[in-house]
Amino acid sequence: MKQAFHDSVWRMRDFRRLAVGRSVAAAGAGMVLIVQLLRLSAQGAGSDRIMMLLFAEVVPVILGAGLIGRAADHRDSRGVLTLGIAAEVAACLVLATAPDFAVTCAAIALLSAGTSLVAPVWSVLVPMVVGEDRVGAAVGGQQSLTAALAPLGAGAGGVLYSSVGGGGAMLCAAGCYLYLAVVALRLKVRRRAVVAAAGADRSGLRQLLAPDLGALQGDRLIWCLLSCMVPLVVVLQGLNVLEVSLARHDIGVSAAQFGCSEIAAGVGTVVGAALAGRIEGARTRGWAMLLGLTAAAAALGILGVATTVPAYFGLLVVVGAGVGVSNTSFGALFITRTPSERRGRVSAAVNGLMQAASTAAIALGGLLGVLLGIRPAFVVSGLAGLVVLATGAVVLARTSTETLPDQPVDVPLTVPAP
Fold it and tell me: Under DSSP, is residue 101 helix (H, G, I), strand (E, B) or coil?
């Protein structure tokens, strides 16, 4: 037991600060989204306004992926974190004033831009904090803690909205991000500014803003797994639009029970992420990712024929566990297999692709519900996901784990702080 604790990433002060700070910020993000949805509901807003709000959240991540990744790779990590967190706090303060809808969308876009600017920096800093050989355990621990705290933040948002109003809830969310700022300033590790090698980063405006897909295609294993994940997100995440109708009207879940559904999925995610954090080896992590997604796709397909509340909650736990295994395995893979000087661009590119897939999923989910009906949409989507994963398994079995030769590297202006 003592040896296990001695080897644990949790004994490292910087990792504890980083993991708790990011998880608290995730709770703040859940608080913001819930409060804004409750505000729109109280104003009698239709689905069109909700869609616009969700689009305002994803557009900065998609359009600015290239620029964000380059900032994470080339700029001082503390400066990038400070700028991103300042944008998040400013957005929360604007939202605390209960602005009109246009300003609300602008504030949500600012919040998303700040979050997307901060996220790739963590991919750069985590290996510096825990070491390359403990990245898997660090990603698993971070995913588990975030999965535990994020739903609590969403629940707290609803409680605060009912008790102190949306303004007070947004001030609490700003406090979550301010805590992350304190964490960022207290971290002992720091990625100093770097400059690209001559000609390595010369590009036009479109290449500057677009995700750096070349950084992903340079690794056949990562590209294979990402090629499976993107269409799967489009097929399966669209079911989020239909879940409330399935649960409330087809299965008979009460309002209180539906509110607890996030907890069930969160429990599964915590367990799945913790288990995946113990996995080592690139190919093993690749297979773990596909198996996790297979479990999630199968469970969502079975949800289409589920008739009882216990079955509904049990299947949500399976979905959460599958997602936890998948996200942790893939996160550890792309960090450990990407040269340190390109991790920011790879992380931003992955985030951009996932957000683009999520945006397409929103439209696809509504369309499937109209064309097929709620239950058939779940069954068909689950089967389609399994077909995608079966194809991915065939490709993965034939894919080499070796990477292509590195691109021109970045040259540090100053060495990282000890």
Answer: helix
The answer to whether 193 and 199 have CB atoms below 8 angstroms apart is no
Helix (H, G, I), strand (E, B) or coil at 407: coil
Position of tokens 């992926």?
65
Query: What whole-number distance in Å separates Cα of residue 120 and Cα of residue 27?
Result: 19
Residue with tokens 């207290």: 186
Amino acid occupying residue 229: M
Number of CB atoms found within 10 A of residue 354's CB = 18
CB 189 within 8 A of CB 14: yes
From residue 140, alpha-carbon distances to 3, 7, 296, 370, 403 in Å are: 19, 15, 18, 38, 24
Burial 191-204 (b: 16+ CB within 10 A, else e): beebebeeeebeee
pLDDT in tens, 157-207: 888 888 888 888 899 999 999 999 998 888 887 777 665 544 444 455 455
DSSP 196: E
| Cα–Cα dist 118/21, whole Å | 12
- Please provide the distance, in angstroms rounded to a whole number, between the alpha carbons at the two ends of the chain: 30
Contacts of 217 (CB under 8 A, 6+ apart): 223
Tokens of 131: 């070491």
For residue 196, the cross-strand partners are 410
Q: Among 160, 155, 187, which residue's Cα sits nearest to residue 17?
A: 187
- Convert the pLDDT of each residue in 74-111 to its tens digit: 778 888 889 999 999 999 999 998 888 889 989 999 99
Q: What is the DSSP string of 394-406?
A: HHHHT--SPPPPP
Q: 225, 286 in Cβ contact below 8 A?
A: yes
CB-CB neighbours of 136 under 10 Å: 24
Q: Quick check: helix, strand or coil at residue 349? A: helix
Computed over its alpha carbons, how large is the radius of gyration of the chain? 21
